[in-house]
């Protein structure tokens, strides 16, 4: 059954090009609106799902299957969205860069442009270390070229090599949704998707049980048992495929570190962290979503300001700001003067990455005509910040932005209060906060472990999912491998570290809400416009299905299937307290 | 506050009593661009704050003076910044050039732009509005054109003609009658390679046409000959575009007329007045064909028709015809493309809502009008400040079709009014819920309304 799906998918995919010659011949003899010819002509192999062509459009030289009409409309709408958001010349590159195969076939024509806007990640060969680390060479055999239609959806639900059994290992037939009911609950909640029962299910369940048992043993400080179990986890993980295998491996590795007390040196290399961060940015929509939603809120808060100042609690490579700069240039009346204060950790290798990022942003601002000022701030903890250092100037509108930074402040008591106090003194127009939507900061180790196992399973699933969506090239890309490494480090920190070393102290939106509320902040509603646009853009840029945007009391969440994974919230000071304090 | 190595350098400066020279010393130590712009009086105060100030590498840019240079020579920009700043020594200049800045890759950020810009609330697109008023396949068809046309227009005013020709669905002439209509292409004028495609109703003999057959005199007592100018904002489509081939065939069937579809030259390669000249040439050619003459009065019963830019051409060709004494029996203008410098209410209200943005309209006018002319040129705004009234001129009767969701409607209505004011015979058909291009598919009530009107408009002189 699975094979049927895959074949239907690929033959459909070829249709666009294989039928183009037919279409041309058709065109010349058509001349009068004899639409029936089209119907007879179209690829019989895809006829089962399709229905006939729209006769009226066929008479005008365009083939669109009736069943595809809504889909084509949606894709056109998405492209239109881009045209609307892009500047005047925003999409003219599509005219030159896209290979326009067969403009008769509107479906594939539109699809080719969507693909062009969302190019597959570079297929640069993964470097040796990461591929051996992750043992993921098997996935390279997945050569499906997938399209976003219904038959493909089923295909994608099965990550990795499940639908392309390349060898006889039973483990290869694993299906994502089923073997680990504790982890992937989609199987239960979305019964409409086909489910294949395979014998590796048992191994999957055992793997999860063993992981949990190991965590339990760690908690009880039964290190001998934990040692035995963690070795067993390693073995069981080898018989798994895809996301499950990787997640299990990272968790096993982290457990082993905890057991043998080989702690990772967290702060050793923030430049490498930045590299991983970039790959994570490239390979999946989470950071893009975070930047987009935060920028949206900032843009609205800056509505009429002529001088604006953004304080970024974690500048990294500054990927968030070009889009905002560009959006500001589109403002009626021209862009405001733009100050950016970028904060980053100290670098061990004496490089001056903050400043280099500043230069590059300045260069960009220059080319798009925004008056730009940059300051880089090196500090090892946000709690070291002081309002005076930030040199807030009278009359400027300030936005404070934190993407995945605040939870680190929970490692030292009093830090988060200090940071929030500083933000209050800054009196920003808006304070945008993006955080992981999970509680990895509970007092009980096993709870943290279980929660993290759920959370990162969904994240890894989504990474695989976007690959299977056909937008990425089949072999695991460098971006993907490095993103897994990025998440793997977080897993390691959550599981292996304790005390002030444990900085990945993610908490849920509800917890943050309570904290922000008691610190005297008021929630800013991110609005349905942001929601609508974020959803549309996701459909377009993340390869669509699987990712889900949700609105939660004015905050926006991005998740994979039913699980929310990150949350953007925006805050301001109530008018009274902002006037009263200071 | 831990400010890494910078803070210790600054602290050292401070302790060594080099506060006055803080910026320069620090720069030598760390070899970076730094432009401490603290005011003198502050220096003594910031015992605590000192740690922060020198570490803030401060870059003040004045983009407008330098931007053209920077685009091409980032080097110049750097030098200019450095030379503008008295605090900086040659050492710093060297440090700058040796730094990685010059080799860094700004395209990094361009990648981040692939995730689009957030939009302010006011810019929000209302895609669904247009979806609600037209059938889905119509929406797909017109949105497809909208998308393709967006690709083809370059911001610099040039046009991607090669891709346009590839994307345009074309149909050859077909001398075998299909649904009672056959067509053939004729060369109207060699010098400009002007072609026209002629559609004739098949009069019974259902066999392949020969050269003799196609120019066989018409047999009807009265037969209207509709000279059709296709739309496409002067830039798109041609007489052999499938959308217009189909429309012309429908006109033949519905009106029992001969249709001559003119393949006029298009902008921006051929600006004003090429399209009008071609229209005039085609009109002269048609009026001199004896085989198109109605039997009753030995006259060719010519009607001019066109949509969008074609409607505009109709007016200008008719005007020329009146001046030259060639008889035209009526003008049919479907959503004609007119405009003017002023922004009208409908342009503001409907901008971007129903397939068309006002900025697109402006692009086409820039592409068509002579260089340096604005939209009050007579071609665009025939009854505007530079226009000429038609008062006292024997202008043909006009049927003007205006779509209520077309942002150009205020100009179309103004045109109708201008004709009326000049005492001309005007029939205005205002279709409140119609959008541009509604006549391309026969699956909406507006299509049949308009076709009925055209039919009676061209049949009024039949006996």
Topology at a glance:
The complex is a heterodimer of chains A (582) and B (463).
Chain A: H1 2-18, H2 20-30, H3 36-41, H4 47-50, H5 55-59, H6 69-85, H7 92-97, H8 106-117, H9 128-134, H10 150-156, H11 186-189, H12 200-219, H13 223-238, H14 242-260, H15 270-283, H16 286-301, E1 307-312, H17 321-329, E2 337-344, H18 353-368, E3 372-378, E4 397-403, H19 415-426, E5 430-436, H20 445-468, H21 478-496, H22 509-518, E6 522-524, H23 527-541, E7 547-552, E8 555-560, E9 563-572, H24 575-580
Parallel strand pairs in A: 1-2, 1-4, 2-3, 4-5
Antiparallel strand pairs in A: 5-9, 6-9, 7-8, 8-9
Chain B: H1 4-15, H2 22-30, H3 40-43, E1 59-60, H4 63-72, H5 74-84, H6 90-98, H7 107-112, H8 127-133, H9 136-152, H10 161-167, E2 181-189, E3 194-201, H11 211-214, E4 224-229, H12 242-255, E5 258-262, H13 274-287, E6 301-307, H14 309-324, E7 330-334, H15 345-350, H16 358-368, E8 397-403, H17 409-421, E9 426-431, H18 445-459
Helix pairs in contact in B: 1-2, 4-5, 13-14
Domain Transcriptional factor DELLA N-terminal (chain A): 54-121
InterPro entries (chain A): DELLA_N_sf (IPR038088), TF_DELLA_N (IPR021914), TF_GRAS (IPR005202)
Family (chain A): Belongs to the GRAS family. DELLA subfamily.
Describe this structure as you would to a colleague.
The complex is a heterodimer of chains A (582) and B (463). Chain A is α/β, with parallel strands linked by helices. Among the domains of chain A are: 61 residues, Methane Monooxygenase Hydroxylase, Chain G, domain 1 (Up-down Bundle); 235 residues, Vaccinia Virus protein VP39 (Rossmann fold, 3-Layer(aba) Sandwich). Chain A contains 24 helices and 9 strands. In chain A, strands 1, 2, 3, 4, 5, 6, 7, 8 and 9 form a 9-stranded mixed sheet that branches. In chain A, helix 16 packs parallel to helix 17, helix 16 runs antiparallel to helix 23 and helix 20 runs antiparallel to helix 21. The radius of gyration of chain A is 26 Å and the shape is globular. The N terminus of chain B is likely disordered. In chain B, helix 4 runs antiparallel to helix 5. In chain B, helix 17 links the parallel strand 8 and strand 9. Chain B has a domain of 297 residues: 3-Layer(aba) Sandwich (Rossmann fold), CATH 3.40.50.1820. Chain B is α/β, with parallel strands linked by helices and 463 residues long. Classes of the chains: A alpha/beta (582), B alpha/beta (463). At the A-B interface, helix 2, helix 5, helix 6, helix 7 and helix 8 of A face helix 1, strand 1, helix 4, helix 7 and helix 9 of B.
């Amino acid at each position: 059954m699975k094979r049927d799906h895959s074949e239907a998918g690929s033959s459909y995919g070829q249709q666009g090009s294989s039928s183009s010659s037919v279409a041309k011949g058709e065109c010349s003899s058509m001349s009068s609106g004899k639409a029936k010819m089209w119907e007879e002509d179209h690829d019989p192999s895809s006829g089962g799902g399709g229905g006939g062509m729209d006769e009226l459009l066929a008479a005008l030289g365009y083939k669109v299957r009736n069943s595809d009409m809504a889909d084509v409309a949606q894709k056109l709408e998405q492209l239109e969205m881009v045209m609307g958001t892009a500047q005047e010349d925003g999409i003219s590159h599509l005219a030159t860069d896209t290979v326009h195969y067969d403009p008769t076939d509107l479906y594939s024509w539109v699809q080719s442009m969507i693909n062009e806007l969302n190019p597959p990640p570079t297929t640069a060969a993964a470097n040796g270390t990461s591929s051996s680390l992750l043992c993921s060479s098997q996935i390279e055999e997945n050569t499906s070229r997938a399209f976003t239609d219904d038959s493909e959806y089923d295909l994608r639900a099965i990550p990795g090599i499940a639908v392309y059994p390349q060898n006889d290992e039973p483990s290869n037939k694993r299906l994502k949704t089923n073997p680990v009911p504790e982890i992937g609950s989609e199987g239960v909640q979305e019964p409409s998707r086909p489910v294949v029962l395979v014998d590796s299910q048992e191994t999957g369940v055992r793997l999860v049980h063993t992981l949990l048992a190991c965590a339990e043993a760690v908690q009880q400080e039964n290190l001998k048992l934990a040692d035995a179990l963690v070795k067993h986890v390693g073995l069981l993980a080898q018989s798994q495929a895809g996301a499950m295998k990787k997640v299990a491996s990272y968790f096993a590795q982290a457990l082993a570190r905890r057991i043998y007390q080989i702690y990772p040196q967290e702060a050793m290399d923030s430049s490498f962290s930045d590299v991983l961060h970039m790959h994570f940015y490239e390979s999946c929509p989470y950071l893009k979503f975070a930047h987009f939603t935060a920028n949206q809120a900032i843009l609205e808060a800056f509505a009429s300001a002529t001088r604006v100042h953004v304080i970024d609690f974690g500048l990294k490579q500054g990927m968030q700001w070009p889009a905002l700069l560009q959006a500001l240039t589109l403002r009626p009346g021209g862009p405001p003067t733009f100050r950016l204060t970028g904060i980053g950790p100290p670098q061990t290798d004496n490089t001056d990455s903050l400043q280099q990022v500043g230069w590059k942003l300045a260069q960009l601002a220059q080319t798009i005509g925004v008056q730009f000022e940059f300051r880089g701030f090196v500090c090892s903890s946000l709690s070291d910040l002081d309002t005076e250092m930030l040199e807030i100037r009278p009359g400027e509108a300030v936005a404070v932005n934190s993407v995945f930074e605040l939870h680190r402040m929970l490692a030292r008591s009093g830090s988060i209060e200090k940071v929030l106090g500083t933000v209050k003194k800054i009196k920003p127009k808006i304070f945008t906060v993006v955080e992981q939507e999970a509680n990895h900061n509970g007092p009980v180790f096993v709870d943290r472990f279980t929660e993290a196992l759920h959370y990162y399973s969904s994240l890894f699933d989504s990474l695989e999912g976007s690959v299977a969506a056909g937008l990425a090239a089949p072999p695991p890309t460098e971006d993907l491998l490095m993103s897994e490494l990025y998440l793997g480090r977080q897993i390691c920190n959550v599981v292996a570290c304790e005390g002030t070393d444990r900085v990945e102290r993610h908490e849920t939106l509800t917890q943050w809400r309570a904290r922000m509320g008691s610190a005297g902040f008021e929630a800013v509603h991110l609005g349905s416009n942001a929601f609508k646009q974020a959803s549309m853009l996701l459909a377009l840029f993340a390869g669509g299905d699987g990712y889900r945007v949700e609105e939660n009391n004015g905050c926006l969440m991005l998740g994979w299937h039913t699980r929310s994974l990150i949350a953007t919230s925006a805050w301001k000071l109530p008018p009274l307290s902002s006037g009263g304090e200071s | 506050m831990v400010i890494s190595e910078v803070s210790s350098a600054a602290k050292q400066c401070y302790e060594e009593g080099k506060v006055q020279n803080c910026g320069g010393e620090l720069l030598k130590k760390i070899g970076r661009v730094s432009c401490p712009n603290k005011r003198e009086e502050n220096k003594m105060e910031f015992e605590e704050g000192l740690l922060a100030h020198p570490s803030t590498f401060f870059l003040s840019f004045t983009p407008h003076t330098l931007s053209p240079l920077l685009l091409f020579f980032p080097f110049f920009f750097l030098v200019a910044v450095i030379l503008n700043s008295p605090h900086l020594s040659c050492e710093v200049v060297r440090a700058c050039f040796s730094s990685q800045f010059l080799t860094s890759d700004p395209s990094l950020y361009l990648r981040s732009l692939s995730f689009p810009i957030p939009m302010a609330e006011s810019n929000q697109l209302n895609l669904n509005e247009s979806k609600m008023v037209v059938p889905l396949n119509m929406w797909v068809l017109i949105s497809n054109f909208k998308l393709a046309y967006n690709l083809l227009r370059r911001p610099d005013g040039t046009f991607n003609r090669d891709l346009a020709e590839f994307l345009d669905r074309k149909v050859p002439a077909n001398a075998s009658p299909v649904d009672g209509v056959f067509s053939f292409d004729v060369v109207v004028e060699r010098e400009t390679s002007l072609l026209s495609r002629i559609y004739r109703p098949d009069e019974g003999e259902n066999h392949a046409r020969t050269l003799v057959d196609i120019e066989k005199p018409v047999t009807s007592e009265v037969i209207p000959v509709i000279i059709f100018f296709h739309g496409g904002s002067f830039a798109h489509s041609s007489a052999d575009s499938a959308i217009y081939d189909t429309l012309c065939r429908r006109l033949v069937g519905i009106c029992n007329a001969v249709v001559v579809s003119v393949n006029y030259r298009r902008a921006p390669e051929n600006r004003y007045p090429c399209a009008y000249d071609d229209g005039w040439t085609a009109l002269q050619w048609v009026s001199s064909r004896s085989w198109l003459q109605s039997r009753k009065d030995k006259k060719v019963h010519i009607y001019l028709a066109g949509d969008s830019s074609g409607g505009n051409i109709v007016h200008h060709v008719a005007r020329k015809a009146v001046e030259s004494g060639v008889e035209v029996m009526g003008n049919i203008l479907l959503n004609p493309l007119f405009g003017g410098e002023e922004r009208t209410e409908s342009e503001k209200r409907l901008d971007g809502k129903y397939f068309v943005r006002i900025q697109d309209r402006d692009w086409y006018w820039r592409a068509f009008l002579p260089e340096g002319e604005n939209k009050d040129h007579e071609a665009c705004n025939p009854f505007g400040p530079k226009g000429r009234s038609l008062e006292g001129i024997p202008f043909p009767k006009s049927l003007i079709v205006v779509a209520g969701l077309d942002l150009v409607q205020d100009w179309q209505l103004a045109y109708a009014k201008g004709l009326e004011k000049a005492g001309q015979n005007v029939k205005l058909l205002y279709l409140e819920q119609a959008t541009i291009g509604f006549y391309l598919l026969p699956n909406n009530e507006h299509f049949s309304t308009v076709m009925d009107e055209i039919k009676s408009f061209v049949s009024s002189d039949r006996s």
